[in-house]
Q: What sequence folds into this?
């Protein structure tokens, strides 16, 4: 599919109730959205909002947060495999209702070889259970935002994907995190392009709109146009009216 701009409704239009953000995205011209954690709302409510607005759901995160104060049960916690499998069953129910194209499987806080082994095993298990047409994503997150997060480097992510070796597990690229981790988001995208199936945009160092900071978005957009087909989602803090931060949508297509 061609490059398709998407809006992250967990961050865009923060002044609106969650379900009203779908209509705002459609009115702004988006055809797709992503929602980080849709689990606070019954799946049917989000499903109705998607149908009403005519939007495609590009991506959700998984597993659901743990609201009881216990460990989050994310995928790289050694000894947490049973908990992960249990939590993913809820994810699959939301996937069935909402039909996201991708599910970002979050690693959680862990370190060391045992964590890498647990993450790979959990990804293989989830990949075997995933519905047809759904791709599982992994994404390195910078320590400034997620200290202690297991997956914090793109080379580490590439090694993990090679170990998992599943066609429906791929790399999620975020310009904010790539720039914060490696200092050059464009170089990261170009190096790991064959593994990337989803792109998110945010500028550094404040995770603002493209053009508000240090990322070379002219270079990144040129690289995207030269060899990427898929969703490109704005995942940043608008810092004002969301509509005023959307210049990147037209710049991406130039």
A:
């Amino acid at each position: 599919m061609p490059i398709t701009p998407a809006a992250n409704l967990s961050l865009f239009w923060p002044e609106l109730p969650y379900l009203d953000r779908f209509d705002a995205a459609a009115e702004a011209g988006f055809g797709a959205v992503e929602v980080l954690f849709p689990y606070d709302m019954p799946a049917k409510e989000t499903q109705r909002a998607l149908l009403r607005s005519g939007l495609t759901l590009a991506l959700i995160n998984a597993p659901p947060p743990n609201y009881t104060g216990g460990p989050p049960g994310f995928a790289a916690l050694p000894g947490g495999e049973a908990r992960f499998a249990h939590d993913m069953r809820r994810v699959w129910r939301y996937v069935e209702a909402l039909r996201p194209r991708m599910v970002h499987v979050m690693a959680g806080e862990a370190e060391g070889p045992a964590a890498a082994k647990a993450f790979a095993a959990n990804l293989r298990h989830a990949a075997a259970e995933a519905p047809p047409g759904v791709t599982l994503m992994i994404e390195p997150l910078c320590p400034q935002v997620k200290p202690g997060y297991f997956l914090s480097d793109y080379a580490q992510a590439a090694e993990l994907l090679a170990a998992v070796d599943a066609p429906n597990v791929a790399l999620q690229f975020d310009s904010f995190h790539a720039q914060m981790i490696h200092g050059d988001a464009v170089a990261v995208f170009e190096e790991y392009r064959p593994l990337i199936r989803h792109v998110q945009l945010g500028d550094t160092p404040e995770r603002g709109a493209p053009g508000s900071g240090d990322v070379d978005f002219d270079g990144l957009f040129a690289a995207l146009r030269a060899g990427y087909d898929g969703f490109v989602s704005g995942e940043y803090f608008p810092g004002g009216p969301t509509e005023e931060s959307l210049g990147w949508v037209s710049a991406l297509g130039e």
Strands lie at 4-8, 32-35, 56-62, 102-105, 135-138, 169-174, 196-201, 231-234. Residues 81-98 form the longest helix (18 residues).
